[in-house]
Amino acid sequence: MLTVVQSPRRCTVREGLGASAHLRQGRELFVPELYVGQSTVVLVLAGRKTVFGQGELWRCDEGGLILLPHGASYGVTNQLNGDAPYEAISLMFDDSLIAASAEAATAMGAGPSAASAASDESRAAPAVAAAPGMSGASAFAPLVAPRVLAAPAAGLRQAVERVRALWMEPHTPDQIARHAAQEVLVWLALQGSRFAPATQPSFLARLRALLAAAPAQPWNAASAAIALNVSEATLRRRLARDGHSMSGLLLEVRLSQAMMLLQATDDYVGQIALDCGFANHAHFSRMFKGRFGITPTQLRDPEHAVA
Question: Can you give the residue ranges of the HTH araC/xylS-type domain (predicted)?
Answer without folding.
Answer: 205-302
